């Protein structure tokens, strides 16, 4: 079979083929981003769980100071943003699999994306507030 | 037949009686296997851990608001229901973490075969249980040994 004939048999543009787009209108981006965020969350989650254990039962001022240290601020922001991104990607697959009614699916999809965004913003603002607030505080006994 | 699509699922026996064609096998016809439970458990754990993020956000917002709000979160987390919720969240997060590592290994081309599934599955369960109990035990002991909190300070630093 010559190459010229083969090209006529492909009912799909070469550009579309290169971009990896099929009838789903998107490629593997969702799957890939879910993995990328998962990999990033491995060290971030381990760090956060250990940190949280050490902060358990501590007074609020200690928590504010801990969040206010630049390394912790950055890692916490990364953790929160990636966690909520990974979360809404995963929940979206659950919705796609189990919710067959189109209206419900659309409503729940919007709720999923919206809730993840708002919750992430709440967390980001709280972290930033503590980061800018911490230097002004004096820890008793520190 | 209420739905026209049902026509596709009806066949005739040799004696002429109508019979519903068998559908493709569904969940209940399979013998229970650990791997099928671990697969759906990862999804359930992910959804459960998602609800746990509400607590994370509440904790952060309360800490950013002031000592009084923060004390409220601590009292709720320290209550029997709070401790139960924390245990559930820890279990969900730990299992989703462990199962996620397995998924990443499969994606990278390692252990993606029946023999490996059946060998690693029980290990994943054991690791999950051990890590959950360990994290929770450390958490409870650190919580109990933490300095006593002044729930309502005389002067709040800011907010509240």
Automatic annotation (TrEMBL), chain A:
Q: Which domain of life is it from?
A: Bacteria
Which is one Pfam family of this protein? Sdh_cyt
Q: Which cofactor does it need?
A: heme
The UniProt keywords, alphabetically, are: Electron transport, Heme, Iron, Membrane, Metal-binding, Transmembrane, Transmembrane helix, Transport, Tricarboxylic acid cycle
Q: What is its main location?
A: membrane
InterPro entries linked: SQR/QFR_C/D, Succ_DH_anchor, SuccDH_FuR_B_TM-su
Where does the record place it? Membrane
Provide the topology term for how it sits in the membrane. Answer: Multi-pass membrane protein
Any transmembrane segments, and where?
38-67, 74-95, 115-139
* UniProt cross-references to SUPFAM superfamilies, sorted A to Z: Fumarate reductase respiratory complex transmembrane subunits
Q: In which pathway does it act?
A: Carbohydrate metabolism; tricarboxylic acid cycle
Give the quaternary structure.
Part of an enzyme complex containing four subunits: a flavoprotein, an iron-sulfur protein, plus two membrane-anchoring proteins, SdhC and SdhD.
Role of this protein = Membrane-anchoring subunit of succinate dehydrogenase (SDH).
Protein name stated in the entry: Succinate dehydrogenase hydrophobic membrane anchor subunit
Query: Which organism encodes this protein?
Result: Endosaccharibacter trunci
What gene, per UniProt, encodes this protein? sdhD
From TrEMBL, chain B:
Task: Kindly give the membrane topology term recorded for this protein.
Answer: Multi-pass membrane protein
So where does this one cross the membrane?
40-61, 81-99, 120-143
PROSITE patterns (alphabetical): SDH_CYT_2
Instruction: Give the matching Pfam families.
Output: Sdh_cyt
In terms of PANTHER family, this protein maps to: SUCCINATE DEHYDROGENASE CYTOCHROME B560 SUBUNIT (PTHR10978), SUCCINATE DEHYDROGENASE CYTOCHROME B560 SUBUNIT, MITOCHONDRIAL (PTHR10978:SF5)
Q: What quaternary structure, including any partners, is listed in this protein's UniProt entry?
A: Part of an enzyme complex containing four subunits: a flavoprotein, an iron-sulfur protein, plus two membrane-anchoring proteins, SdhC and SdhD. The complex can form homotrimers.
| UniProt function note | Membrane-anchoring subunit of succinate dehydrogenase (SDH).
Q: What is this protein called?
A: Succinate dehydrogenase cytochrome b556 subunit
Q: Which organism is it from?
A: Endosaccharibacter trunci
Q: What are the top taxonomic ranks of the organism?
A: Bacteria, Pseudomonadati, Pseudomonadota, Alphaproteobacteria, Acetobacterales
């Amino acid at each position: 079979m010559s190459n010229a004939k083969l090209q006529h048999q492909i009912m799909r543009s070469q550009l579309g083929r290169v971009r990896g787009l099929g009838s789903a209108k998107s490629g593997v981006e969702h799957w890939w981003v879910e993995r990328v965020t998962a990999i990033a969350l491995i060290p971030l989650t381990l760090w956060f769980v250990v940190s949280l254990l050490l902060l358990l039962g501590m007074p609020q001022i200690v928590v504010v100071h801990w969040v206010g240290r630049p390394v912790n601020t950055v890692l916490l922001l990364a953790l929160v943003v990636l966690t909520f991104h990974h979360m809404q990607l995963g929940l979206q697959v659950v919705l796609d699999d189990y919710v067959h009614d189109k209206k419900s699916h659309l409503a729940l999809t919007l709720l999923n994306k919206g809730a993840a965004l708002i919750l992430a913003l709440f967390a980001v603002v709280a972290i930033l507030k503590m980061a800018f607030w911490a230097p002004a505080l004096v820890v008793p006994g520190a | 037949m209420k739905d026209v699509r049902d026509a596709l699922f009806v066949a005739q026996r040799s004696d002429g009686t109508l019979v519903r064609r068998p559908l493709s096998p569904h969940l209940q016809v399979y013998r229970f296997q650990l791997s099928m439970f671990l697969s759906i458990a990862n999804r359930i754990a992910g959804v459960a851990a998602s609800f746990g993020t509400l607590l994370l956000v509440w904790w952060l917002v309360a800490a950013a608001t002031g000592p009084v709000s923060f004390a409220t979160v601590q009292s709720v987390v320290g209550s029997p229901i709070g401790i139960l919720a924390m245990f559930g969240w820890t279990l969900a997060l730990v299992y989703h973490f462990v199962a996620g590592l397995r998924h990443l290994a499969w994606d990278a081309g390692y252990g993606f075969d029946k023999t490996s599934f059946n060998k690693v599955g029980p290990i994943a369960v054991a690791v999950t249980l051990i890590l959950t109990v360990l994290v929770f035990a450390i958490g409870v002991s650190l919580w109990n040994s933490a300095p006593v909190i002044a729930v309502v300070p005389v002067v709040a630093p800011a907010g509240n």
